[in-house]
Amino acid sequence: MRAALSARHMGKVVRAYRTHSFHSKVIAQTTAAGWLYLTQSQLSRIEGGPPVQDLDRCIQWAHKLKIPANLLWFTLPEEEIGNAHGQHIISASTADGYPDAEMNELLRRTFLKRGITAVTLPAIGLDELKHIVSALDDARRYSDQEIVGYFRTQLADCAAKDGDYGPKKNIPITLGLIGAIEQMARDSKPAVRRTLLQLAAQAAEFAGWLYRDIAMTEMAHYWRDRAMEFAQAAGDYPMQGYVLLKKSQAAWDERDSLLMLTLAEATKDGPWCLPLRVKAEALQQEARGYAMLNGDLAAIELKLAEARELLIEDHETQGIAAHYDEALFSLQCAICYSEAQQPARALELYDEWLSPRAFSRRDYGYFLSLKGAALANAQAPDQAAGAGLDALALAKESSSARTHREVLRLVELLRPWQSRTQVRKLVSALLT
User: Fold this and answer.
1) How many Cβ atoms from other residues are within 10 Å of residue 179's Cβ?
2) What SS3 class is residue 101?
3) How far is residue 9's CA from residue 271's CA, in Å, rounded to a whole number?
4) Rounded to an integer, what distance in angstroms lies between the CA atom of residue 59 and that of residue 5?
5) What single-letter DSSP state applies at residue 305?
6) Which residues, 6+ apart, have CB-to-CB distance to 405 below 8 Å?
């Protein structure tokens, strides 16, 4: 360890830590990468490549490994120095291979108790069945020509209310719509049936989104798969590409950068003619994948420039991805820059585009949590914790477990400043 520290090479330090004889067995790269918010391939390149020059990342990793301040070649944040002096390089709290295991477990259990389970729904019960029956009864009042417009209006109403009312109210209604659309499609003429199946694909994709927002990953996967089946049955090629894009976005929640990039490329290069907005978003997803995998700023900039041009060319206000506008694109660019370790550029975009006037309360809270991560990477812990507190309040209000999870990630980034008052407030808010 000391030889690696003397070399001023954090990659070698991590490798020496993983393979240290103190551990009963060598810690796998995959495990260590998770501690440092990296993929296994990223950590492999860091261990074997040139020294990391990004001071913020070195500070964060030094904290995770609990390296004494007097052995480092850089200066820790002031409040961290006192904690790091006099500790063993391999502390007792990491003896089981999991740094800060007790706090991590406490926060994980709190998320399960007050995050996911506080907002998820029980199995379909009487109230939910009433929504399904009501949707079907209402639909039968319309002729084949009118039925498509009825379902489209109902789905649009759910989507419009989503950002403010959250998934708890929308999931039963959406499931009811899907059941009613399926039933009516069976009884309709072929021309109407195809249109109804297209609507079923849109409704199923929306259901997948709602379950994604409450962090029910398996249910979200299920409904995205159903959306793909409906789109295939309807011969709706653009919708098939759009569902792939949504699968790519879901991979971001798990920080699966390779899957996210692969699905974004499949969206862009598939055998369909996509709306320009969907192509733009797919290019943005590619840029984010590059940011997470290798931080290649030139490749990131190229993809974002292509996406921006497509978005400028698109003047459609309806259809799939109609919600994708300049404000949303700009915040997604901010995420790219933050993942590429360019927090200053990310914060410029957040400051310009993130506003409660431009986004629903749920979406504003989500992006606020990600802005907090950029602030933490920019060495602004008090501002980051403040953003986290605001985001957490909005997550609870809108029943967004997805935002709650991002606040948990923010707390991990803020661990080097855990003694600061504002950071302690954030941790306390998560635990209460």
Assistant:
1) 19
2) helix
3) 46
4) 13
5) H
6) 111, 115, 215, 253
376, 399, 55, 427: which is closest to 214 by C-alpha?
Answer: 399
The predicted pLDDT at position 355 comes to: 96
Nearest 5°: phi and psi at 167?
A: -75, -25
Report d(CA 257, CA 128) in Å as an integer. 36
- What pLDDT was estimated at residue 326? 94
What end-to-end distance do the CA atoms of the chain give, in Å?
A: 39
Q: How confident is the model at residue 383 (pLDDT cuts 50, 70, 90)?
A: very high
Task: Answer for the pair 137, 154: CB distance below 8 angstroms, yes or no.
Answer: no
CA distances from 345 to 135, 336, 366, 382 (A): 47, 10, 19, 19
- pLDDT value of position 88: 39
Q: 118: buried, middle or exposed (CB in 10 Å: 19+, 13-18, 0-12)?
A: middle
**Quick one: how far is CA 118 from the chain centroid?**
19
Q: Are 165 and 121 in contact (CB under 8 A)?
A: no
Q: What is the pLDDT of residue 171?
A: 86
What does residue 19 show for φ and ψ, rounded to 5 degrees? Answer: -100, 10
User: Token pair for residue 42?
Assistant: 């990223």
Q: How far apart are CA 363 and CA 361, in angstroms?
A: 6
Q: How far, in Å, CA of 320 to CA of 323, rounded?
A: 8
Helices (H) and strands (E) in the chain, counts: 23, 0
Q: Which amino acid is at 131?
A: H
Q: Specify the pLDDT at position 79.
A: 47
Both structure tokens of 257: 């950068």
Q: What confidence category does residue 52 fall into, taking pLDDT thresholds of 50, 70 and 90? A: confident
H or E element in which residue 359 lies:
none
State both tokens at 409: 């990630």
Tell which residue, 335, 414, 426, has the closest CA to residue 377: 414
Are 38 and 46 a contacting pair, CB within 8 Å? yes
Q: What CATH class is the domain 2-99?
A: mainly alpha
pLDDT-based confidence at 186, cuts 50/70/90?
confident
